[in-house]
Amino acid sequence: MRLIGQDVLNRAMRKHADAGMWLKGWAMTVDDAQWQNIDDLRMDYPSADGIKLKSRIVVTVFNVKGNEYRLVTNVNYDAQAVLVLELLTHAEYDKDRWKGRY
């Protein structure tokens, strides 16, 4: 799959250096992946969730570093692309403010 949003990942790694190794590994997995649906994706990331927002956009959320962070993405299976939206701490994610941004 094509990874879009490397700049977002780079900023996240600078801000949360402890998540860097996980994010780099995730990016490598995405580059090699050919996911056709959420079930394919969950073969690599079993805890990933697809969340439908009020805007009707479905985002895919990955638990990062033992659930310490949440990586919010938009996966387009038809286009074989993953758009990185943002990396949140678990506390930021739980506040749900991010849902209004997409």
Summary tags:
alpha+beta, 4 helices, YaeB-like fold, 5 strands, five-stranded mixed β-sheet, 102 residues
Descriptive report:
The protein is of the alpha+beta class. It has one domain: YaeB-like fold, CATH 3.30.2310.20. The protein is built from 4 helices and 5 strands. The protein has helices at 6-15, 20-32, 38-44, 90-94; strands at 2-4, 49-52, 58-64, 69-76, 81-89. The chain is globular, with a radius of gyration of 13 Å.
CATH architecture: 2-Layer Sandwich
Q: How many separate helices?
A: 4
Biggest pleated sheet: 5 strands, mixed
CATH class: Alpha Beta
Total domain units: 1
Low-confidence sequence ranges: none
H and E order: EHHHEEEEH
Distance between the termini: 22 Å
Task: Summarize the helices and strands and which ones pair or pack.
Elements (H helix, E strand, L loop, with lengths): L1 E3 L1 H10 L4 H13 L5 H7 L4 E4 L5 E7 L4 E8 L4 E9 H5 L8
Summarize the structure.
The chain has helices at residues 6-15, 20-32, 38-44, 90-94, and strands spanning 2-4, 49-52, 58-64, 69-76, 81-89. The protein has a 5-stranded mixed sheet.
